[in-house]
Specification:
Blueprint lengths: L5 E4 L38 H7 L3 E18 L2 E20 L5 E5 H4 L4 E5 L5 E10 L4 E5 L21 E6 L7 E12 L17 E4 L11 E3 L5 E10 L7 E6 H14 L9 E5 L2 H7 L7 E6 L4 H5 L6 E5 L2 E2 L3 H8 L7 E8 L2 E8 L13
Antiparallel strand pairs: 1-12, 2-3, 2-5, 3-4, 4-7, 5-6, 6-7, 8-9, 8-11, 9-10, 10-13, 11-12, 12-13, 14-15, 15-16, 16-17, 16-18, 18-19
Length: 376
């Protein structure tokens, strides 16, 4: 019998755009961190320095929520509802300290709908936390504790991560605090179709790093770090047939996470820029049908009227080759690159039309079709 493979979040939780015209240049959203000393690069087999430098920056998160459930009673064989009763549920996950004054990055599904959030540091201090902002489209959230002089993880450049590179996953699987596992980067730009609850006017942004570092329930929101003790990903999900780790786990790249975290801190809402395209990945069949010169890029199936790509001159039938200088051969790769920019940013797009390569500059728009700041 064929075994089904499905994707589950690595937590214990109970758990296109329209177009208009009112341009306004938004503020920059770079996340500011205090400088840190990088850890010297280590060998494939010795991660002790990296673990020591990273483990204090990963926290255990506990959430509490109340659910109302019907209360029934039997009278002479008839089941009659007698009201409702309150049941309190707890969920657990992990988080990563990203500033010395207590901002913590985690998964949205770890803290969504939580009535109370508490954070346990690696030194066993337990502190209340508040939700700063969340982004269902990337499954990221920022929470805040009141503390100073905390150990934090500096962001690495996830674009520079290579397949085969050794990594550590740090989190709290099964409530076993401060757990470290090791592995390698198995693949990049994975789209697993697991984010299914974004806001109605947003497209899920999935471009995961895949790793074989062991991850289980409770690791959600934890750290994926490289051999220089830099945060290159936020652990999010596992692929499993039974809900437990079987060799595949996924993390949100740090370059997406740093943009989301910065916007959530400043605005409580992610300022996301769109081109306004519907695309199909170019395979052998698409290349044959369209006359593409090579099996690469993204075929433009539709251009939204008066959106960024329409204004820049991209047309149906074009093949997008590069966005901001980076080759894009999958939808996930294009979304990851666009996820680094904000509405109002000008992005260079290389595309093929009738066998010729062209370059245009497109000014990205938000989901409302302008460049204004969207606030929560």
């Amino acid at each position: 019998m064929r075994k089904r493979l499905f994707v589950v979040f690595a937590t214990l939780a109970m758990v296109m755009q329209s177009c208009a015209q009112t341009p306004e240049q938004p503020a920059q959203t770079a996340l500011v961190q205090q400088p840190s000393m990088p850890v010297e690069r280590v060998t494939l087999t010795d991660f002790t320095d990296v673990a020591s430098a990273s483990i204090d920056a990963v926290v255990h998160i506990k959430t509490e929520m109340t659910q109302l459930t019907p209360l029934y009673q039997s009278f002479f064989g008839f089941i009659i509802q007698q009201g409702v009763q309150k049941q309190v549920y707890n969920a657990y996950g992990s988080g990563v300290i990203i500033t010395t004054d207590g901002y913590i990055l985690t998964n949205n599904h770890v803290v969504q709908d939580a009535e109370r959030i508490s954070v346990t540091l690696n030194d066993r201090r337990e502190l209340p936390a508040r939700l700063v902002g969340n982004d269902p489209a990337t499954d990221l959230a920022v929470i805040k504790i009141e503390a100073d002089n905390l150990t934090y993880l500096p962001f690495g450049n996830s674009d520079m991560v290579k397949v085969g590179e050794p990594v550590l996953a740090i989190g709290n699987p099964f409530n076993l605090t401060s757990t470290v596992t090791s592995g390698i980067i198995s693949a990049k730009a994975r789209n697993m179709h697991i984010i299914d609850n974004p806001r109605s006017n947003e497209t899920p942004l999935e471009s995961f790093l895949q790793t074989d570092a062991a991850v289980n329930s409770g690791n959600s929101g934890g750290a994926l770090v490289n051999s220089q003790a830099q945060l290159i990903g936020i652990v999010t999900a596992i692929a499993s047939g039974n809900g437990n780790y079987i060799g595949y786990s996924f993390a949100i790249p740090s370059n997406i996470a740093v943009k989301v975290a910065g916007d959530l801190q400043r605005y409580g809402y992610v300022q996301r820029g769109y081109l306004g395209l519907q695309v199909t990945e170019v395979d052998a069949n698409v290349a044959k049908q369209t006359g593409a010169r090579a099996i690469k890029g993204l075929y433009v199936a539709k251009v939204m009227k008066d959106c960024a790509s329409d204004r820049a001159g991209i047309r149906q039938g074009d093949i997008i080759l590069r966005v901001a200088g980076k080759e894009v051969n999958t939808f996930a790769e294009m979304m990851e690159e666009l996820g680094l920019f904000s509405p109002g940013d000008e992005v260079e797009v290389d595309y093929e039309r009738n066998g010729h390569t062209n370059t245009i500059k497109a000014v990205l728009l938000n989901s409302q079709g302008n460049t204004q700041i969207i606030r929560k």
